[in-house]
Design brief:
360 residues, alpha+beta, Transferase(Phosphotransferase), domain 1, 2 domains, five-stranded antiparallel sheet, two-stranded antiparallel ribbon, 12 helices, binds adenosine-5'-triphosphate, transferase, Prot_kinase_dom, kinase, protein serine/threonine kinase activity
């Protein structure tokens, strides 16, 4: 376990602008005086008492730190240091300054499948490394896929936010219903034992969206989305997938499989002919197919709008929430899954469901 330094972070770093916000605090650009280098400081509020609704419990932060310490890989954000005060833990992370991959892509006029694959490959390389280390991310979604520097001709993917990640011990059975309805695997919703295969489901969803601008299981409400996921009810709408290669569809079909044991692993994905073509015909197919940019831009604009809307609602609710905590006794897996990240986000179920419903 990394040393949680008791010193004041501000003795070493100048705290600069906000880079992003999570449910438990902010990520800010920080400047290290000795090295004259910029980093990202993730400021996490720690719960003061077991009953407090606001903040994270310390063990959850310890888990995130322990996982980040294991993961040294070019496609995974690096952890440099950890500071701790009475009410806050600050993770000093590698600064990822290129923004989200989806935003970068949405700025383009067009993108060939083979160009999109270059990004996907890096995501898969990061995942392959993570999974080899028996770590699952469990919260893969566009917001957590960033670029190191979008100015570079070949921007590097960086996977971020290991707040829901889990390090599996040998033979361990782990269940969790945390996650985001659009990207969550069916076994999570049904509260079954999880494995790294849950991340591969999310890769299937992300690839589907990337190619078509459609979200495969998105319903009118979170309940509907979760039901669609459980039913694995999706299709390739001809209108949206008219520019997509059959190899790409095959890739997605081998990930969006209900049985986690039948899904491709990250390692298998990397040798799928869509990612690593063998024949000339396969190479040509990829470079003749492109992503549905018009639809993708629409999807991304809506996603960004929802994110800001949710954030404003969440902030308003956090201000007004001073209720004592109360655990739900509802055993319904759908309802449990709707508590999305409740383990990390100590908000009552009805608040979260309400937020998502309004945003939908
Ligand atoms: P959530 O509650 O949504 O899961 P979180 O509290 O776990 O969020 P992160 O997702 O890690 O926090 O970070 C919140 C946002 O801060 C990110 O969406 C991203 O915009 C920004 N961010 C996080 N890490 C970095 C980084 N290393 N460099 C630059 N920006 C970052």
């Amino acid at each position: 376990m990394a040393l949680f330094k008791p010193e004041n972070v501000e003795d070493f770093y100048e705290i600069e602008e906000v880079l992003g916000s999570g449910h438990f605090g902010q990520v800010r650009k920080v400047y290290e005086r000795t090295s004259r280098t910029h980093w990202a400081g993730k400021f996490l509020k720690i719960r003061k008492t077991a009953c407090s609704r606001l903040g994270l419990d310390r063990t959850s932060v310890e888990r995130e730190v322990e996982i980040l310490q294991i993961l040294h890989h070019p496609n995974i954000v690096a952890l440099k240091d950890v500071f701790e005060s009475r009410s806050e833990v600050v993770l000093i992370l590698e600064l990822v300054s290129g923004g989200e991959l989806f935003d970068f892509i949405a700025e383009k006029e067009n993108l060939l499948e083979c160009e999109a694959i270059e990004f996907l490959k890096q995501i898969l390389e990061g995942l392959k490394f993570m999974h080899k280390n028996n770590i699952a991310h469990f919260d893969l979604k566009p917001e957590n896929i960033m670029l190191s520097d979008k100015g570079s001709p070949h921007p590097n993917i960086k996977l971020i936010d290991f707040g829901l990640a889990h390090h599996f011990c040998q033979g361990e059975e782990y269940r969790s219903t945390s996650g985001t309805p659009q990207y969550i695997a069916p076994e999570m919703i049904s509260n079954e034992p999880l494995s790294t295969a849950a991340d591969m489901w999310s890769i299937g969803v992300i690839t589907y969206i990337l190619l078509s601008g459609l979200s495969p299981f998105q319903g009118e409400t979170d309940e509907e989305t979760l039901k669609n996921v459980i039913a694995t009810d999706y299709q390739f709408n001809k209108h949206y997938f008219s520019m997509t290669s059959s190899m790409a569809k095959d890739f997605i079909m081998k990930l969006l499989i209900k049985n986690p044991n039948e899904r491709m692993t990250a390692e298998e994905c990397l040798v799928h002919p869509w990612i690593k073509p063998i024949t000339r015909i396969q190479v040509d197919k990829r470079s003749r197919s492109s992503i549905n940019m018009r639809s993708f831009k629409k999807f991304n604009a809506k996603r960004k709008w929802k994110m800001s809307y949710n954030m404003v609602l969440m902030c308003n609710r956090l201000v007004s929430l001073r209720l004592p905590c109360k655990s739900s006794s509802n055993p319904d897996p759908l309802q449990q899954a709707q508590r999305r990240k409740l383990s990390r986000k100590w908000l009552p179920v009805h608040q979260l469901v309400h937020i998502n419903r309004v945003a939908n």
